[in-house]
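Q: Joint fold for the lines below.
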Amino acid sequence: MRILSLAGRRLAASIPTLFLILIGVFLLLQMAPGDTVDALMAQMGGGDAATARELRKFYGLDLSIPAQLANYLWHLVRLDLGFSSIYGKPVASVILERLPPTILLMTASLSFAFFFGLVFGVIAARGVNRWPDTLISTLGLIFYATPSFWFGLMAIVVFSVYLQWLPPGGFEDIGTVQTGIWRVLDIASHLVLPTLTLGLIFLAIYLRIMRASMLEVLNLDFVRTARAKGLDETHVVTRHVLRNALLPMVTLIGLQAGTMLGGSVVVESVFSLPGLGRLAYESVVQRDLNTLLGIVFVSALLVIVVNFVTDLLYARLDPRISADS
Amino acid sequence: MDLTRLEINRRTALLTSAAIAANVINPMRAFAQQTPRKGGVFNVHYGAEQRQLNPSLQASTGVYIIGGKIQENLVDLDADGKPVGVLAESWEATPDGKTVTFKLRKGVTWHDGKPFTSDDVAFTAMNMWKKILNYGSTLQLFLTAVDTPDPQTAIFRYERPMPLSLLLRALPDLGYVSAKHLYENGDIRQNPTNLAPVGTGPFKFVKYERGQYIIADRNPDYWRTNAPYLDRIVWKVITDRAAAAAQMEAGELHYSPFSGLTISDMARLGKDKRFVVSTKGNEGNARTNTIEFNFRRKELSDIRVCRAIAHAINVPFFIDNFLGDFAKLGTGPIPSTSIDFYPGANTPQYPYDKAKAIALLDEAGYKPGAGGTRFSLRLLPAPWGEDISLWSTFVQQSLQEIGIPVEIVRNDGGGFLKQVYDEHAFDLATGWHQYRNDPAVSTTVWYRSGQPKGAPWTNQWGWEDKTVDKTIDDAATEVDPVKRKALYAEFVKEVNTELPVWMPIEQIFVTVITAKARNHSNTPRWGSTSWYDLWLSA
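A: Joint structure:
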């Protein structure tokens, strides 16, 4: 019950922010030259002025900007995200279609980055300034400095073109209709390369944070106490150090859940995945205001939820931080 | 004998020899005589999703590449670029050019089983081509009615003479027919059929998964006997060009149409025996690179300045070093691929001559000021292709050398059209002019005055010439093909003299296709056609 009321309060507090963000994005997109009809004309390769006028009416662009904004907000209050001009159907259903691949990719990459970041961070911290540390830190820097589209393309060239181990793109195999476990395995095989590509960059950050955090905690008094009472090193690290060193990692996850939504545009494009990032990019280029605002809305909600879960995790990891404070 | 057609420049010669070499390695001719193999799935690269798939409502390659396999047009082009009947079997026009009668094919049915009749043609022409279809609405502006005395006859009635040759060259693109019974009720633009097209073509729509793929299967009841050969076509949505090239190599794609890969990838795959890379089959989709001058700008309203800018740019150098075999020197708004209208290169041209450019600018009174600067310009490149981006940088560097610093302002598609064609916020703009088989379809609007503000790819340059206007108007309604050709030659001469738009580079889209494909690229607009005879060898 306490958790629910906390969740309610959090959500209520974020509603004004949410509205400010939506209005901001709406106005920003008004400043971009051209509207969705111009974008459609660009796609069609031309059309006459009468057609353009009619299309503007069709998309409701003949109204003034304040009227359009008021219209949008009025719909939003009634939980109606509006109609997508590029997809010709309700924004909510467009986003719902795209949400599963995005969430799948995001969860997979974050878990990958978190897990291996943790392991490598601990190894590096335990062998600080010796060869495991140097090796891991160097690799981390390389991953961090490499652009993800290049990583993705190289992964396709090596694993799909030459070795032919994994599919080069797409969300699932179109040729054969699969069900049950085979479909799961098929989707999983399609997601291996995108997950690695997206995850490697974050892995670098996580392992640096984990290493630093471990080193800091290792020097604290209670660790010395633990060692003094005769615990072996593995015990000290897993029972006493790790749990305390995890706090910054959890903070980071909360922060990065939002970044990941935006950061996956590149990975989704390279691997032809039907995710939210690509949808957002397309909506900007096509000036599809409703869809873009819808995505901003959903992303903002997602970030709020993830941050809420992060806070709960904090309390769990460190009893000094209670959910009430 | 048209001598200009025999002129083969070095590039074409190279390209042709490359094509011949490819034929030696993959002897297509020999294979074509083999018995076609039935079956197989053909995977097509689909780079940019459109808002709908019905070619009766949107004239663009992004729609034809899918809708053109499902729906059919009245007329298409044959291997020699001559009109050939598809849903129409024959046609004739009255001498005054105001009535055109089409006899339609018998025994054709829509994919839902309903018969195809002249009612469908009349409905599509009056409600889609005339009202919604881009370029169609201009072409059919003076269409007053389509009479249907019987199910196999459609009589088009025009208020002003419609040259039959113009109509027949426009209809392959602007003459796709939709089913009346699916569209007669409700708003045509919102009709769900637009995203699940129903046609008479060799392939039946199966499924569209937005952002991922589109599937169409073989139509067993297709009116051509023993066609099509393929079981299925799958269009895969891949927005990243480099990723599409990798998918070609991994065997996940068979065909990337309309220069869908990067220039370097197309050149690379051209050396790979598994692929055929060629401009063949795209002759009907020629385009020219442009420089549009804004005559509202004082300096540019002086024709000498525009000519100086043209003389200052070394076009052959640019083509050789950046575009390679996929482009050649252009000579004006009508490209050399236009068999019926190309007037030859015997019109005013602007070869690279820096000294002349400088002399012209000095003569116009724009002497270099402090730091060698004469005046500066804003250049807006269109975002359609990497060649435009390279070209704009090349223009910038070339003009810097004659004392005109250029600021490049980049926009996305919507932004570019708005700024250039509506707000006129440019000094120079550069993009593509698409030539659609007849200058009256989408070329003369670049020069005819009186275009409404905001209409993309029309004369928005603040430039007007009564002589040019008259030539354009006369040619548009001239019924005699010989006289029409002469009028268009005159038109090219006039606009190359006055130079409101300079069109110095000619390009044809490049096809990248698996060497296993047979009967491909055999017509001038092959990528858009129905592929009823396409097959894959084992």
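Q: Anything notable?
A: The radius of gyration of chain B is 24 Å. Residues 1-32 of chain B have pLDDT under 50 and may be disordered.
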